[in-house]
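Data card: per-record layout.
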Amino acid sequence: MFTGIITGVGRIAAVHDLGRSSQHGKRLTIEAPAGYLDDVGLGDSIALNGACMTVTTVDSGQRQFSIDISAESLDKTAGLTDSGPVNLEKALRAHDRLGGHIVSGHVDGIGTVTHFAPLGESWELRIRAPRSLGKFLAYKGSITVNGVSLTVNSIADQADGCETSINLIPHTIRSTALGSLAAGSRVNLEIDLIARYVERMLTADAQPAQATT
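The structure for this 213-residue chain is written out next.
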């Protein structure tokens, strides 16, 4: 479980194939900020651009750790196959502050940046989300973009999806890897956990009951 408050910006330093077929995943080596890995051990969970991954090796001296990512996860996420900056967040501890919102680290869909430009002292980020996620987005609601907890400023339903506008303050630009985005960039999206359960409660009774044996 996470909060969407990025605790460090790392860099994917190396990507290695775990096999020769499309059914094989990849092993990623990530460089972390100084001191970031001091309390990280094997098996710990760290979110990479919003996708929860398991630490398989850690070398705090070299400031590196590795994760294995399956072909299924690669198919459902973006930005985890090329070298470059990546948002990092360690798993939430029971006594931590919930500074963002409840984030599971499970990517619900991939969005596309349609606009990213300065607006006053801040930046405006517009993202076209898949049409299937549009019903989960609400004005002033929460959305996770590449692991960052953000607030929805506006929503526009379109034939090919749902475009949402988000305002990024200078602190967010400085403290995350979102500043490297541009029009056309693909981003990992996670909808608000509460919206997921509300949708299930509203639709469950409409589904025909299945016989049990």
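Known properties of this structure: The helical segments are 71-75, 170-175, 193-204. The mean pLDDT is 94.

See the next section for split statistics.
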